[in-house]
Amino acid sequence: MKEINPLEITDNFIRLISSDWMLITSGDESKYNMMTASWGGVGELWGKHVATAYVRPERYTDEFVARTHRFTLSFFDANMKKMLGVMGKESGRHFDKMNYEGLTTKVLPSGQIAFEEARLVLDCKVLYVDALKAENFLDKESLAKWYNEGPGGSLHNVYIAEIVGAWINE
Ligand SMILES: Cc1cc2nc3c(=O)[nH]c(=O)nc-3n(C[C@H](O)[C@H](O)[C@H](O)COP(=O)(O)O)c2cc1C
């Protein structure tokens, strides 16, 4: 993997996140966990390049992010979509995600975990944590659809994180 300046990434992050999906990974080589995410953003805040992740507190991955304040975002080619489906259905609490066939752990210089098979990796350090609040929804339809009537579960935790490294597979 080669380190690149985030400003040189030419991908469309709306498509990458919403359609292609990503893995949020947190922990270290001895113990980490990852989950699929299709909600999030990449942009600029406080003079830093940032990525924002939305993680429900029920996710095992959330325990790692809340504790370490670090995570990576890994983006893959289409041939890895089946893996993303599995990582988005199974929980690391009951499923051995660390030894999933076809995913090779890559330890970044920061000690954070990504995957050799990823085509783009963002190494992220959390700057700000919050949880979505029901009373702050101006769009009550989304509140009803995604929380009250929908898949259920708690309001997402919001992690705004500085992108401290970006890596591509050539
Ligand atoms: C396509 C897709 C996108 C998802 N996006 C998110 C997301 O953005 N935030 C979230 O909290 N869960 C999301 N999930 C659900 C988690 O990936 C899923 O609950 C996973 O099993 C959690 O694993 P864990 O318990 O090992 O952390 C998504 C699932 C799929 C299939």
Task: Describe the 3D structure.
This protein is an alpha+beta fold. It has a single domain (2-168), classed as Electron Transport, Fmn-binding Protein, Chain A (Pnp Oxidase, Chain A, Roll). The chain is built from four helices and ten strands; from the N terminus they run E-H-E-E-E-E-H-E-H-E-E-E-H-E. Strands 1, 2, 3, 4, 5, 6, 9 and 10 form an eight-stranded antiparallel β-sheet that branches. A two-stranded antiparallel ribbon has the order 7-8. The radius of gyration is 15 Å and the shape is globular. The termini are close together. It binds flavin mononucleotide. Flavin mononucleotide (FMN) binds at residues 21, 33, 35-39, 54-56, 59-61, 88-93, 156.
Secondary structure layout:
Elements: E1 2-3, H1 13-20, E2 22-28, E3 31-37, E4 40-45, E5 48-55, H2 60-68, E6 70-75, H3 81-87, E7 105-107, E8 113-115, E9 120-131, H4 140-148, E10 157-168
The protein binds flavin mononucleotide.
Flavin mononucleotide (FMN) binds at residues 21, 33, 35-39, 54-56, 59-61, 88-93, 156.
The portion of residues forming beta strands comes to: 35-45%
CATH superfamily: Electron Transport, Fmn-binding Protein, Chain A
CATH topology-level fold name: Pnp Oxidase, Chain A
Count every helix, treating DSSP H or I runs of 4 or more residues as helices: 4
Number-wise, the strands total 10
Helix content: 10-25%
- Choose one word for the global shape: globular
Mean pLDDT: 96
Structural class by secondary-structure content:
alpha+beta
Indicate the CATH class. Answer: Mainly Beta
The appropriate CATH architecture is Roll
**Unreliable stretches:** none
Q: Which ligands accompany this protein?
A: flavin mononucleotide
